[in-house]
Design a protein that fits this description.
Layout (H helix, E strand, L loop, with lengths): L1 H17 L79 E10 L1 H7 L11 E6 H6 L5 E6 L5 E8 L7 E7 L2 E9 L13 E10 H11 L4 H4 L1 E7 L10 E3 L5 E3 L17 E4 L5 E6 L3 E4 L3 E3 L5 E11 L5
Parallel strand pairs: 1-7, 6-15, 8-15
Antiparallel strand pairs: 1-4, 2-3, 2-5, 5-6, 6-7, 8-11, 9-12, 10-11, 12-14, 13-15
Keywords: Signal
């Protein structure tokens, strides 16, 4: 600021001094007569008085005009400051998802048909669990979402079950003194089918598998390690849970055993009249049902294998163009 003021004062001083015929730079006088004022030519000299008979003197030569002062150099403008870097926006939190689930425990349809009403154990006092499928596969200690106990009618309910971190889906597990631990897929967040949505439900069927049925199945298949090694018990059914025969189950890299009505291994390459099958997956497997002119819900099912656990898989088929 002091430098700019100095330049400004100097400029004003030069302009003021020029009014008094003084330039801001020094010049020499003319050879004859008086030096001109800055920028203005000098006046001619007076003629001298001649002597007697003499010649009149010549007029004086005009003075050379003085040069104007040189203007001062303009000051350079200051450099602008650099703008600050914008802050990064915060990450949004994950929205909490709490759901209400209610339903009833039921005996697996195939087991109920084999055992008959007299052979079915009581459904009271069974433990029902909701488990995060992805966390369970990863062996995470917080895979269990919630658990409850069935009432005298086998009914259960969950209030505000936390599905916030569910990614692969939720499985429902049933276990009790006279039942094998069994699981069934409850919902799949990647599915567009409303019946598989991970939201509130009031109609859940939690199928339970009695140990008495497991003992019969192992004996008929000649495999006493079936349960200890873990296996999938599947069934293709119609809308009313009636068996749907002649359905092929695709399970790449795995063997599918189609069950005959007496629970022995069938020689057929598709489901028999009971619609049932058994798979002992090699790790995580995907089951895909196929039947001409039918669509299934779900269209496929990811299944695993855990020691002492029966993984149940149900495929509900619907005819595409049913006959009138």
């Amino acid at each position: 600021m002091r430098k700019m003021t100095k330049l400004w004062v100097l400029s004003i001083a030069c302009l003021s001094l020029s009014a008094f015929a003084i330039g801001c730079s020094k010049e020499e006088e003319g050879p004859s007569g008086t030096g001109g004022t800055g920028g203005t030519g000098g006046s001619a000299g007076h003629a001298g008085t001649g002597g007697s008979g003499g010649t009149a003197g010549s007029g004086g030569t005009g003075g050379t005009a003085g040069s104007g002062g040189t203007g001062g150099t303009a000051g350079s403008g200051g450099t602008g400051g650099t703008g600050g870097t914008a802050g990064t926006g915060g990450t949004g939190g994950q929205e909490e998802k709490l759901v209400d689930i209610s339903g009833a425990a039921m005996v697996n349809p195939l087991a109920a048909a084999v055992l008959g009403p007299a052979g079915v154990p009581s459904l009271e006092g069974l433990e029902v669990r909701l488990t995060d499928a992805a966390k369970a596969l990863a062996g995470a200690p917080d895979a269990l979402i919630a658990s409850t106990i069935t009432d005298s009618e086998g009914k259960f309910s969950f209030v505000d079950a936390d599905f916030t971190e569910v990614t692969l889906g939720v499985v429902i597990t049933v276990l009790g003194d006279d039942f094998a631990m069994s699981t069934l897929g409850l919902c799949d967040p990647s599915s567009t089918d409303p019946s598989l949505a991970c939201g509130d439900r009031v109609d859940v069927k939690a199928f339970a598998v009695p140990m008495s049925f497991i003992n019969i199945l192992q004996a008929r298949l000649g495999d006493n390690s079936l349960l200890s090694g873990g296996f999938v018990l599947g069934q293709t059914v119609g809308a009313n849970l009636s068996p749907l025969p002649e359905t092929v189950i695709r399970a790449p890299g795995n063997t599918v055993i189609y069950l005959a009505p007496d629970l022995t291994a069938s020689s057929q390459t598709s489901t028999t009249e009971v619609g049932a099958f058994v798979v002992k997956p090699n790790g995580l497997a995907t089951l895909v049902p196929e039947k001409a002119d039918f669509v299934f819900t779900p269209p496929h099912q990811s299944v695993g294998r855990t020691a002492d656990v029966v993984f149940q898989a149900f495929f509900v088929g619907a005819e595409i163009n049913p006959a009138d």
